[in-house]
Amino acid sequence: xxxxxxxxxxxxxxxxxxxxxxxxxxxxxxxxxxxxxxxxxxxxxxxxxxxxxxxxxxxxxxxxxxxxxxxxxxxxxxxxxxxxxxxxxxxxxxxxxxxxxxxxxxxxxxxxxxxxxxxxxxxxxxxxxxxxxxxxxxxxxxxxxxxxxxxxxxxxxxxxxxxxxxxxxxxxxxxxxxxxxxxxxxxxxxxxxxxxxxxxxxxxxxxxxxxxxxxxxxxxxxxxxxxxxxxxxxxxxxxxxxxxxxxxxxxxxxxxxxxxxxxxxxxxxxxxxxxxxxxxxxxxxxxxxxxxxxxxxxxxxxxxxxxxxxxxxxxxxxxxxxxxxxxxxxxxxxxxxxxxxxxxxxxxxxxxxxxxxxxxxxxxxxxxxxxxxxxxxxxxxxxxxxxxxxxxxxxxxxxxxxxxx
Length: 405
Description:
4-stranded antiparallel β-sheet, 37% helix, 13 helices
């Protein structure tokens, strides 16, 4: 789960992470009032959306104008900047061409910047450890740095038994070229950030840029904070920070129904149990010449109600021309899944081709339920057979539509 910059900074402030003073504003008048609370004379007005590259982005309503992060030298300039952004659509590299609507801005105090650095914490799947990453290339997308200058990225892994040690922060500080009081400030900053990462069950915390002020202090100029969805049951206060308007409506429905769903731009809807099997299903659809419309994992404890909801979410995508169900029965037995498929098909009056591949516990009973349902369900013997049949069904539907048959 992602949250906005201002929300992330408020959380990090509670852990002693150095952030600048700022206030949220939902309209131009509130932005002016927010600026009046700050020392000035420089203010920064930032669009709040779940996407990076805001400063370099452009508004769809004014593509030749300024980006989503603007400097203001007076309260009135802060007001004008907010008025120019709120209610407009900001397009960045990460939003795609559709952009995201800006509903609020964060008005923050200015800062005397001496250097811009990068600092991030994440779970490294290769080492199975929380890893601290740092770079001298602050303000740049870390993916570009990794691709073109990997030697400029410093890493230290935190031992899960020993925990974070101050020497790890000092090692990074020296690698970044910090000295004197800057090293002590950096050490304190990293220690606080690491504690926040662990206690909040974060997936990613990224500070880009992390700035060294002219006074030698280390301050977070930005904050990207993302949480592990699987741990949110321990943090109901964090779950309340979710901004539903930033999510695809189908993905939001999936979250509310305990489904793992990600919308894609293909034409074959996928319903699978297990993330690995879902990835394999999407890959084989591509192999046979089509593309998946979604990633959808109904989980190992799927029941008829959840299957019906999964079908409803899949079919709400107008680009879906066929559906492939690929189930390996374990805890969720094949007969139960088959009964759910039949119920969902009848309830939703499914009109697109449906290919089903079942394997695992009670598979023969599951196949019998599908065969006797009276529905036009296309059975598949294995994953390759399922992929061939669903792609063929899409192609046939496309030809029929083109010829008016």
